[in-house]
Design goal:
Number of domains: 1
CATH architecture: 3-Layer(aba) Sandwich
Shape: globular
Distance between the termini: 28 Å
Number of strands: 8
Strand order of the largest sheet: 1-2-3-4-5-6-8-7
CATH topology: Aminopeptidase
Structural class: alpha+beta
Order of helices and strands: EEHHHEEEHEHEEH
Length: 195
């Protein structure tokens, strides 16, 4: 059996590899350059809660630890050798559930080029075929038309609506919930996307 993590996935000019300490400069530059564009969709920590790591290094360290415990898979998205964003598989649940959530962001310079739909499709295929998960979920704010378009391109089914689901941009925000199971894409998500 092929290892589920760490792993590098490639298709065309898109590469997904483990997020690394060496991505710090490119990650910060992309986040700073895209701060206004990403702010309405970025997770925030509610007041009085235990926060996320304050540094990039702390975030990578935490995500890497979770990946080694089979609870996450943090991918850097690289397009033609240039850092372009991030796709993270999180909340991996084993046992009778075998499911996980996927979140992502992309540098605006790469938006609208099919990078994120392909990256998410590649990650879903990896989750189903190699990591042996059964179900993948994606939560999207109703106002996030770009992410809703990703779900549409992938043919994900809307399975619910979650009021005040995640703390985003300083408030508890509603989300539309999309999901796919391994049975729903027997030929793989990349094949579905490209057909």
């Amino acid at each position: 059996m092929t290892r589920a993590w760490p792993v590098t996935l490639r298709r065309g000019g898109v590469e997904l590899r483990p997020l690394a300490f060496s991505d710090a400069r490119a990650w910060r530059e992309a986040r700073n350059r895209n701060a206004v564009w990403l702010r309405p969709w970025d997770a925030t920590v509610p007041p009085g809660s235990e926060g996320r790591p304050a540094t990039f290094r702390g975030m990578v360290k935490r995500l890497t630890r979770l990946a080694h415990m089979d609870e996450a898979m943090p991918f850097a998205v690289v397009v033609d050798g240039e850092f372009a964003g991030q796709v993270t598989v999180s909340n991996i649940v084993r046992g009778s559930a075998q499911f996980a959530s996927i979140g992502y962001w992309v540098d605006q310079r790469f938006a609208g080029r099919g990078v994120i739909p392909l990256a998410v499709a590649m990650v879903i295929d990896h989750c189903f075929m190699i990591a042996r998960l059964h179900r993948i979920e994606i939560a999207i704010r109703p106002e996030n038309t770009n992410s809703l378009r990703v779900a549409e391109k992938l043919g994900l089914v809307e399975v619910g609506y979650a009021p005040r689901f995640l703390h985003i941009d300083g408030e508890w925000r509603d989300h539309r919930l999309f999901a796919v199971t391994v049975e729903e894409c027997p030929g793989g998500m990349v094949k579905r996307l490209e057909s």
